[in-house]
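One such shown below:

_____
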Amino acid sequence: MKKFTTFLILAAFIFNANVILSQTTIPDGTNISGTWDIAGSPYIVEGEAIVQEDATLLIESGVTVKFQTGTDFDYSSPTFDAGFLRINGSLQAVGTENDSILFIRDGDTGNWGTIFANYGSTLDLSYCRVSNANRIIGIDPNWAYRYGAIHAFSNITLSNCLIKDNLNNGIGLHHSDAVISNCNVCSNSGSGMSMFVDSYHNVSILYSKIINNVNGLVISTLGSYVIITDCEILSNSTNGICLSGSASVKLFNSSIKENAEYGIRNLSTSTLHSGSIIENCCFENGKYGLMLRVQGTGIIFKNNYFIENGEKGASIYNRGGNPSFIGNVVYGNFDDGLSLFSITNTAQLISNNTIVNNGGYGIYALATNLSLENNIIWGNLASISNITNNGASYIRNCVLQDNNLPGFGSDLGGNLLNTYPQFSDTTNNDFTLLPTSPCINAGSFNTSILDSTDLAGNPRLSHGRVDMGAYEYQQTGEWLHLVYPNWKEILDGGTSDTIRWIGSEGVSNVKIEYSPENGGSWETITSSTENDGEFIWGNIPDVDVCAAKIRIIDNNNATISDVTDTTFFIASNLIANGEQVSGTWSLANSPYTVEAKAIIPQGQTLTIEPGVEVLFKTGRNYDYNLSYFNMGTLKVEGKLIAEGTA
């Protein structure tokens, strides 16, 4: 029995001796290069290990690198005692999915320093785990605050890495060209990543998870963009993405969810700059989905979800830009769905959004120049707050739950007031449109604002005219859609004009009809014409009609048809927009209808006989200098004589 016990003790001693002999110790101040292989693993770094310029260290898969933990992380201190790597040359640590490389502490407690990639170096990590690092103060005194477990001033490639449980930031970048893909940066006591990117460098973050840090990403740029694609930025204890200083980002196809404060925000007075795009992202279950100050041109928020946040869905502060908010769904936020503020008069386009079931306003605006087109704003505490504007704001082709348009300079028409949009399934937050929805083919004809696809990725123009809201109804089968006249136009009686429509290829010939009394009776314009989209109406009735309609019908299937959305007018004496007038307006030709701007030129006289009736088109745009001014007006630069009788 004693011999057996001795054998066990001896065997255990030999086994432990083999383990001890297999490790490699790297003393403080050692220059390292060559290959660290599995035979020498683990490698114990006792202080500063340096890859010098023009040198390369290759670490093979399966290797473990352990670092001495420390209590003093100030590099300038005489008691500095943390293990770390300084890369002045090149580090290549390429593991595999089943055999990763570990950068960890030596022991069960405490923290080591950092992997510091100096200016001009190259860092390539694949299938690596970096944990329980801290940071080193003063390693570069100019930019110490961007430290991290990986602290880079260089070209860096990280793929399939786990950066976890570090005492400070996971990754700190400055003046770096970086590609970070398929990485998991989680549970760090600082930010997941913190970076400054100047005009000479680019950073791309792809297919990565940034989870359960303090901030997910902290970004500052100068003349460059940080590109973030297909990432999950979740459950960070303050912000998902925090923009510091000036920042330009291109954020695509990402989930920004359940961050305690903001999905994305600016710090202090920082701004989101020109050319930034946020597209196909979901901002969900934070305090705020998005709160950004913007400044510059070409800033776009497109095809995103802002849903079920604890306060506001999206808030945009315009400090001198022309941001566009297009094709988004904003629902279930506790307060306002979309808040807009501006200190300038630059235009802001709000188009094809579905803003529903928010606890405050659908849109709350303290902005001076808003363009609202094709939006569905429904089921909120109220649709739109009173707009502070200078007459430049306009709204057209929107669904509102209210019966009024508060404060807009111009109502350009096509709005559906107090009209239910007919969503597919609001119980399950499905805001696509039912086949009977009044929003189908009810958007404006301003195709310049449209993207090629809707929020669901379907074609945006499926039947020649855009739908209202973020989703385009994908109708099947044959169809016809009348384009002109379609909404309150004024046609000149006794002349000709072109009727325009769009139709599917399966419709060969169409019949066109006219009603002078809002559809009460119909007259044939042509019994059959080719479905080529145009027909010249060569004999418009020379009478005054206030409620005219046009109807177009498939000759082979009368169920396929379309009719003008709203009645139009026929005027026997139409004064067209911009027309110069003079001479005499006679009682025999009365009434005269002024479409928009009519001008009596200098040196000329217009005489209006007694009994003549002059009709002026109504509108809501009061700024004569704007291109879409739409109120009948007679401007006298010459002389007007209008003397009636008792």
